[in-house]
Amino acid sequence: MKERAALVELEKVADVCKLLGDKMRLTILSLLKERELCVCEIVEIMNTSQPNVSQHMRKLKDGGLVKEAKKGQWVYYSLNIDDKPYLHVLFQYLPSQKEKVDLISCEQLNFCD
Length: 113
Known about the structure:
Elements: H1 2-20, H2 23-32, E1 37-38, H3 39-46, H4 50-62, E2 66-71, E3 74-79, H5 85-93, H6 98-102, H7 106-109
Antiparallel strand pairs: 1-3, 2-3
Helix pairs in contact: 3-4
């Protein structure tokens, strides 16, 4: 029984590693390390389309790495890694995205009303 649980846990970690293997998703997680962000903010910072960001966010959410909160018509995302202590170490090594995050806000973009 313990062996089966260990295999299931290994599979979960492998799935998380696959999600982290994509540069865009890793960058998004690095942004979310700074603060909760709206989809429109991520689109602006990443200089990509909303459908592209939404596709990556869906994968991150399905993988249990982010959680979402709906405010009006917009979805805000935040990290959901408290139950994954092995990621806390990795996140210490991610380059800071604070400057990028601090330069943008929904209010400034007039998208998230």
